[in-house]
Design brief:
By secondary structure, the chain is an alpha/beta fold. The chain contains 13 helices and ten strands. About 50% of the residues lie in helices and about 15% in strands.
Length: about 375
């Protein structure tokens, strides 16, 4: 696999360890109707691609396969179903070897791209990511989440590099349901609330930069999301797509794991354990932000968090993000299921422990059922620019 350019890899030697940050894909191609140009870039990486996708594999027949044929590439395609799971990864490795693949192309949403990235690393092959929605930043990142065959989160894998090539075709993104972009907004806006609470007091240059980029990302989404959702395909819509797919990935790349996920993503991981959950990743994460802010209110009495939660509730109502368990389709959750979800979120290796305070099981369960609670007594009013 061709190594990433040195300018896109940052490493810092300390007396005790070597810290390597996987900051960015080696190359990003973005625009409208750009797949033809992108095919030339794919051909530089290999001549026998394996296309990995899910339900959106059909789009490759209309959009991707013709241009691969024009480049005389010998491709095969395979589904990652039922999930980005160990069984699927094993099956795809076998298919890739049988095809004698020399490059992996991930096409689809976050799970398809995570699967493609991880298979490529396991086989030491270059990987191309082609997102078909703006629901996550998975097309950018050096990270894959692994789930059970039933969709329950198991663990994540830090990859050795970001994708070799990211192809962001706005026309392809626009074919996805609007719900996907809404979910992407929820996933992306979490970067500020998680990075600021875990790393807001850091004095390290790159982490300071990541936290501030997270604030910029939040402000872009606050200012432009409503207009973007009203005008799909417009310039403001493209700016929001760039924010959710690209800028959100930059933050984790610069700041590392501690700037990537905290309590909001831990809550997401817990919710995936509930049988029959139907919401998608960014929707669970968006709800998880409210849970995290509620914990800051309840456990340490943070009134800034209380005001931020109220601001988010208003924003969620405007764009259609879930505000409580009922909005996630979990209005009938049992006490046992709630406890199971909270226990997973509080597992010893969970990202929730990046919070600057300890959280008890009962506190997390209470926060999960009170995300829309009014601010008690309205004791403090915060201006929006201070949130």
């Amino acid at each position: 696999m061709k190594p990433n350019l040195s300018a896109e890899k940052l490493s810092t030697q300390t007396p005790s360890s070597l810290s390597v940050l996987t900051v960015a894909p080696e190359k990003v191609i973005r625009g409208s109707q750009i797949l033809t140009e992108a095919a030339v870039a794919i051909a530089h990486l290999g001549s026998r691609p394996l296309i990995v996708g899910g339900r959106t594999l059909g789009v490759t027949q209309a959009h991707l396969q013709p241009i691969l044929q024009q480049q005389r590439l010998h491709f095969a395609q395979a589904s990652y179903a039922p999930d980005c799971s160990e069984a699927s990864l094993e099956a795809l490795r076998t298919i890739a070897k049988e095809h004698k693949a020399d490059v992996i192309i991930g096409v689809g949403g976050g799970k398809a791209l995570d699967t493609a990235k991880l298979v490529a690393q396991q086989l030491q092959l270059p990987v191309v990511t082609i997102p078909t929605s703006a629901a996550t930043c998975a097309a950018w990142t050096a990270l894959s989440n692994v789930y059970s065959d039933d969709g329950a989160f198991l663990y994540d894998v830090a990859l050795s590099s970001c994708p070799d090539l990211l192809i962001l075709d706005y026309d392809l993104i626009q074919t996805a349901p609007q719900r996907m972009l809404v979910a992407g907004i929820g996933d992306a806006i979490a970067k500020w609330y998680e990075a600021s609470v875990s790393s807001g007091h850091s004095e390290q240059t790159l982490i300071i930069s990541a936290v501030q980029q997270a604030r910029v990302l939040r402000d872009i989404l606050f200012q432009k999301s409503v207009a973007a959702l009203q005008e799909p395909g417009s310039e403001v819509w493209k700016e929001v797509v760039d924010a959710t797919v690209l800028l959100a990935g930059v933050i984790g790349g610069l700041g590392g794991a501690q700037c990537r996920t905290v309590a909001a993503h831990a809550v997401h991981n817990g919710l995936t354990q509930i049988s029959g959950h139907s919401s998608i990743h960014g929707e669970k994460v968006a709800y998880g932000i409210l849970v995290q802010l509620r914990l800051e209110e309840m456990v340490i009495g943070n009134q800034l968090a209380a005001s931020a939660r109220q601001q988010l509730l208003k924003f969620y109502a405007e764009i259609g993000l879930p505000k409580n368990l009922g909005d996630l389709g979990l209005g009938n959750i049992t006490l046992s299921e709630l406890q199971q979800s909270a226990e997973i979120a509080l597992a010893p290796n969970s990202d929730i422990h990046r919070l600057p305070f300890k959280v008890a099981l009962e506190q997390l369960m209470a926060a999960m059922v009170s995300t829309t609670a009014p601010v008690e007594g309205n004791r403090l009013t915060i201006m929006n620019d201070e949130l």
